[in-house]
Amino acid sequence: xxxxxxxxxxxxxxxxxxxxxxxxxxxxxxxxxxxxxxxxxxxxxxxxxxxxxxxxxxxxxxxxxxxxxxxxxxxxxxxxxxxxxxxxxxxxxxxxxxxxxxxxxxxxxxxxxxxxxxxxxxxxxxxxxxxxxxxxxxxxxxxxxxxxxxxxxxxxxxxxxxxxxxxxxxxxxxxxxxxxxxxxxxxxxxxxxxxxxxxxxxxxxxxxxxxxxxxxxxxxxxxxxxxxxxxxxxxxxxxxxxxxxxxxxxxxxxxxxxxxxxxxxxxxxxxxxxxxxxxxxxxxxxxxxxxxxxxxxxxxxxxxxxxxxxxxxxxxxxxxxxxxxxxxxxxxxxxxxxxxxxxx
Length: 344
Ligand code: GTR
Description:
Elements: H1 3-12, H2 20-32, E1 41-47, E2 59-70, E3 73-84, E4 90-97, H3 109-114, E5 118-123, H4 137-142, H5 155-170, E6 176-186, H6 188-198, E7 205-209, H7 227-233, H8 257-261, E8 267-273, H9 281-291, E9 311-312, E10 317-322, H10 330-343
Parallel strand pairs: 4-5, 4-6, 6-7, 7-8, 8-10
Antiparallel strand pairs: 1-2, 2-3, 3-5, 9-10
This protein binds beta-D-galactopyranuronic acid (GTR).
The site of beta-D-galactopyranuronic acid has 6 residues, from loops.
């Protein structure tokens, strides 16, 4: 069974899977940095119906502000909660978003509502900037003068921490189905969505769209972006330790299959795009193959490399390849909905 894929996997020379605790410890120490501590105080204020007559009355959009005390300092950030008005408990997405706008062409909010989902959207730059400055936003309350230690959080870990605070808010809403919490994001925010779910078992599903290097793609044997290339342009996404693996992937005590495997026994779906060679769809797919044994219902796929429009949704790990370039399209969202509906 899976003869060809097993041979291809062997060529990648991956470290074997470990316990979830060990894998998370390695991922935090070597790649993303440890999550910031949970806030010692947390409260939410809500501006109701901040978008008038939203979704023709099928949903309300509320602007929520999370007020946190962390390290004795205050930090707050806003997000938008779109809640269907229909009776009942709604499954929901926490979308770690590139843009602040709701609705937005990258987040088909009305369609999500039409499919029965609530969506809570946080804009990543509201947490801390997407750059090397560690003195602003959440970074500013964590580090004295913007200086961090080798294992301290990079920006991805900070955005993940914020998505977990949005989950804290979701837990206060009786109209949400807490057994169907999905965290999702695209590209750098797909990496973030995976790290969010890996470190927080309240999320039943994680979906990463085109996250590639340092997300859902194996580093060993990639034909796309390398650790050297990502650390050169985006060192601040990661902890300082990650630099050790520039041109030195074979020394990594892990690979990205640890990230997907840390989501077991829950659900994770990888979205790839056929022309997104930088994210490397084959290495994204092989991560699913490599992480599969961590799940009771592992990755179910054909014994060949993926092709356009392959959709493997039967196991707890899913994978889909859409035709096209690097973006989060309606087709991707629809496939995510399909994966979630199949398993909830
Ligand atoms: C690229 C980066 C990728 C991906 C992408 C994005 O330039 O090299 O790893 O994360 O940005 O987030 O848009």
